[in-house]
Amino acid sequence: MTQDAAYQQTQAKIAEALKTGATTLYLRYNQLTQIPAEIAQLTNLSKLYLISNQLTQIPAEIAQLTNLSKLYLSSNQLTQIPAEIAQLTNLSKLDLDKNPLNSNLANAYASGLDAVFDYLKAQAESSICLNEAKLILVGEGEVGKTCLLGALRSDPWVAGRPTTHGIEIKPVTVIAPDGPTEITLNGWDFGGQQVYRPTHQLFFSAPAVYLVVWKPREGPQQGFVKEWITLIKHREPDAKILIVATHGGPGQRQPDIDRQELIDQFGSDTILGFHHIDSKPDNATQQLTGITELRKAIAKVAFDLPEMGETVPAKWEEARALLRQTEAPYLPYSEVLDICTKLDIPTAQAELFIHISHRLGHLTHYSQDPILKDIVILKPDWLAKAISFVLDDATTRNNSGLADFDHLSQLWSHPPFEGEDGYPEDLHPIFLALMERFDLSYKVSFDNPKENAKNTSLIAQLVPDNRPETLATAWPATPEPGDRQQIQICRIVDEKRQSATAEGLFYQLIVRLHKYSLGRHNYNHSIHWQRGIVLDNDYNGRALLEHIGNDIRITVRAAYPERFLSYLTQEIKYLVESFWEGLRCNVMVPCISPCGLDEPGKGLYEAAKLIDSKKKNRPDYPCERCGEWQNIDKLLSNAPLTQPDTQTQKLEALQQEIKAVGQLVTTAHQELSQGQEALLSQSDEQFSTYMQMLTDEAKDGPRLFSLKPVKTKFLDTNPNWVTAKFEITLWCEHSLAPLPTLNPDNPTLGVYTIELTREWISAISPWLKPIATVLSAVAPAAIAATKLNLSDAAYKGIDEQIGMTQQTLTLASKGVTDTLAVKSDRQFDRGDSIRAQGAVLRKLHTQIKTKDPSFGGLERVQNRRSEFLWVHKQFVSEY
C-alpha cells in the first residue's frame, strides 16, 4: 500500500469511528508518516493503536482526546512527543517501545509514565538547543594524549608533563562547519595503562567524538590502534573515530599505517579521518603541525552527531550550568535540590532532572544506595583518579587484591604519585561504595571478628593470575555420586559473529557473583583467579566458571543443575549485551558421546540453531568438528534457557511434596536428599520463569500477591457469582514474604479489600495459580536466606495465605467459559497471552493506587539486569 493510500484509508477509519462514537481505534501496520488532523474529533476514544507505522511526530491536537487511557506508539520513528500529551490526565498506558527517542525522553520513559509526564511538563515551559558532546582521547601511555588536548585548547606548551592517572577532563570549544555556532566539547583524556581499561569503559558514551592516538615511531601495532578501536566499538557500536598520529613535526617520521585496512575492518562510517599532528610548537615558527586541520575535523564530526542540537528544558540546562559553576567535585543532594528550587523547578521535576543527568553521564547519583543517596558527584574524573590510585597499588596486588579500608584511606589521603593531591577522609567511604557500584570490588567476610573489623575489600582486577592449589579439593575430577553435570559456553562474538574480547568481563563477574562465592561467609574459603571462579548455590549446586579464550565456560554439578546453569548464563548474557553494546553472547552446548574427536565435548553447537532445526522437525544436528550427527534433544539437555516450560504440571502434581520440602528448609541443620534438592531447584526455576513473564508490569507496580474472599464461604454458596469482595495482600519480591509478616507492628499495611469480577480472577489464574504452587517451596527457602527469624505461627500464616489463594482461584474458575479464561499454561509461550495477563495485573495496580499509592511501603528497586522488583524497605540496600 502506498503512503497516500494508507493516509486515505486512515481518514476513512477516523470518519467511521466518529460516526459510530467508537472508543477504540486500530491504525496499525499502515505505513503512516503522519496522523490526519481529524483524529482530534474522536473525543470518545479510550484506546488508540498506532503501532508499526512510520510516524516521525505526533500532532499536539491529540491532547483533545481527553478520555484517552491507552496510547500505543511502538515501532515508529519518533524522537520526541508533544508536551501536550501530559494534559491527558486519564492516560494510564503509553507505549513508546522501539522508537529512536531522544536521550532525555528515553531515560524518562525508562523510569515510567510519571517521569515522562514530568519531563513533558518541563519541556512545555521552555526549551533551548544544546550543542554539546564529549571528546574522548584514548591510546597507550605516553603517546601524547595530554599534550594533544592542551594544543586543542590552545594551552601553553608544557615540557615533561606527568603521566595521566585515571582521567583528566577539560573543555574544548570548536566552531561548527557552517559557522558561527560554538560547540562545547568536554575533552576526556584517558590514562593509557592497561589496568585502567576496564574502568575507562564506564565512561565511554555517546554523543562523543573519539580520538585514537598513536606514536608513529613506535608503529601502529605497538600503539595497539586496532585494539583501541575495537574496545570503543564494543562499548559504542555507532562511535565516530579519528585516528591521530602524534609527534608529526618537521623531520619526524610520518605516519605509517594501513588506512584502507582499518576502513575495511571497521567501516567508513566509523573511521572518519586520519591526521598527523605535533602538539609542540616549532622552534622557528612557533606553529603547531596539523592542529588547525584536526580541530576542523572534530567540529565536523561533532556537528553531525545525531544528538547535536537536541532541545532540553531551559531550566534544566540552567541548573546544569549552576552546578558546573560551583566547581565542586560533589554536592549534598539537598543542595542540588535547593539550586533547582531557586530556578522554580518543582521537586518532582528536580528529581527527574538528577536521575536523567545521572543516566546521561552529566553527574553521578545513586538514589537507592544508603551511603551514596545523599551526595551528587559532579566530576567523574575526580572519581576515576581515586580508583586509579588503587589499581596502581603494588601492595594491594601483592596481597592478591585484598585491601583493608585503612590502607585504601591512606592511598586516597596521600597518593603515591608526584603532583597528585589527596582527598578528604569523609570522601573515602564514598569512593569505596562507588567501586562496589561499578563492580570493581566487594567487601569480604572472615570468621575472625578482628579481621572483619578491618573492613577488607577484594579488588577484583588484582586477584592472582594462577589457579589456587585448593581448586582440586573444591572441584574434584568427577561429580559427587548422584549429581549430574551440565556444561554451557557463553561464546562472545562481534557483529560479524567473530570471537571478541569483552575487556574486564571476568573481573565484573567475580564481583557480581560473589554472593555465591565459596568464601561468602569466610573469605579464606574463596577460590578465584584471573580466569576462573568456583561458586556454590546450596541445593542448586556448585559451578566452575572459566574464561577460556574469549568465551566463558560454565559447568554446574547438582541433583538438578539446570536452575543454576540457567541463572549464571542469564547473568553473563545480560552483562555482555548490556555493557558491551557491540557484542553478543551466543549460548553454546558441547558435543556428547559418541564423538569422533579424541576429546569428546570439544565440538560446540549454538543452542539457537538447534532449536530452529528442531522446529523444522529435524531430530539430529551434525557436529562441525567431528562430523557425527547428534540427537538435538540430548544436546539441549545442556540448554535450560531454551527449554519450554514442561515442569508446571509435574510441580502441581507434587504440590504436597513441595510443601513438605519447603517446610524442611526452615528446620535448622535439616539435610535434604538429592531428590528433594532437585525439586527445590525446579520450583525455584518455575517461580523465576513466571515472575519474568510480567517483567514489564513491574515498572509500575508489584507482581506478587495473595488473595482470599472477604466472606469465606461466599464462593461455595453462590455458584453463579459475578463480583465479590476480596482481601488482597502484597508480598515482598525479595524475601517472598507477605507484608503483614514483615510489618508485625502494622499488620494491615499492604492489605486491601477490593471488589473483583469473576472474569478478572479467572484471567489471572493461569499465572497466579502456579506461582502459588511453587511459593510453597521457594518462600521458606528465600526467607531462610534473608535470615528472617520467623515463628512457627508466622510460617503457618504464610502457608495458609498460599492455600487460600489456590482455593480461591480454583473456586472462581469453576463454570467459567473458555472465552473468559486462558485455557492453559502453555499459552504463555504466546506474546498476546502474556500481554493479557499484564493488562489484568495493571488493573489491580490501578485499584490499589486509589487506596494506597505507596503499595504498602514497598519500594521499587532494580537488580543487576535492570529488572524492576518491589521489595520491603529493609531489603532495599541489597540492590
From TrEMBL:
One of its GO terms (cellular component) is cytoplasm. Its EC number is 2.7.11.1. One of its GO terms (molecular function) is ATP binding. It catalyses: L-threonyl-[protein] + ATP = O-phospho-L-threonyl-[protein] + ADP + H(+); L-seryl-[protein] + ATP = O-phospho-L-seryl-[protein] + ADP + H(+). SMART domains: LRR_TYP. The keyword Cell membrane does not apply. It holds the Pfam family COR-A. This is non-specific serine/threonine protein kinase. It comes from Romeriopsis navalis LEGE 11480.
